[in-house]
Amino acid sequence: MMMSVDADLMRVLADPLRLRIVTLLASETLCSTHLIEETGAGQTNLSNHLKVLREAGVVETEPCGRFTYYRLKPDVVASLAGQFADLAETARATAENNVKRSCP
Predict the structure, then answer these.
(1) 8 vs 76: CA distance, rounded Å
(2) DSSP tag of 59
(3) Nearest to 9 by CA among 43, 58, 51, 82
(4) Are 62 and 71 in contact (CB under 8 A)?
(5) CA pair distance 67, 96, nearest whole angstrom
(6) Using CA atoms, how far apart are residues 39 and 75, in angstroms rounded to an integer?
(7) What is the DSSP letter of 92?
(8) Which residues make Cβ contacts (< 8 Å) with residue 2, sequence separation at least 6?
(9) Which residues are registered as beta bridge partners of 72?
(10) pTM over 0.85
């Protein structure tokens, strides 16, 4: 049975800045100062995007003195990748078996 892709998570990652943040955090754990430098985003804008990513369960935080570090949760990304892999497999089988709905 085909899995559906998590639409809420897709909406979270559809924003270009949030996708850039996720891409950066895939390589290393960073604090907001690093993310501001890397993205060019303002502090308030970046904080709002990080809040969305935290609430969606995409990133987790680690306090370190007066800084907060952000880390990507790889299981969330792997789950989404698995959903797309399932979707691709269903599409491949549909194409191979020439499955189509007849018109009325």
Answers:
(1) 12
(2) E
(3) 58
(4) yes
(5) 53
(6) 24
(7) H
(8) 86, 87, 90
(9) 59
(10) no
